[in-house]
Amino acid sequence: MNSEQKEDNRKTRIERIDGLIKRMEGILTGGEAKRGIPRGERNEILEITGELKRIKNMLEEREGMENTLTILSCTRCGHTWHPRTPQLPKVCPLCKSPYWDKERGWHKK
Ligand SMILES: [Zn+2]
Q: pTM for the complete prediction?
């Protein structure tokens, strides 16, 4: 598969998911819900949400793996920890210092 075909395939999947989300919204929030969700639609919704959950799990697993490679440490209290999100925390989880990543003494007069 060349990169152009790959790109087309990706677009098709995104369009399919986008179309399905719009239909889901119509079904779930619109008057259609009162009449019941057609079995075919329901199966497709479950299939797509299952796929999305699988992707979410893969993503979280991957992020978890990346996080184990990163250890942050607080310059204030010496606490070290594995970050759970890619963003750096605003404060140290132990001593709550907002200067955990700053060199000691920079804010002193
Ligand atoms: Zn600390």
A: 0.38
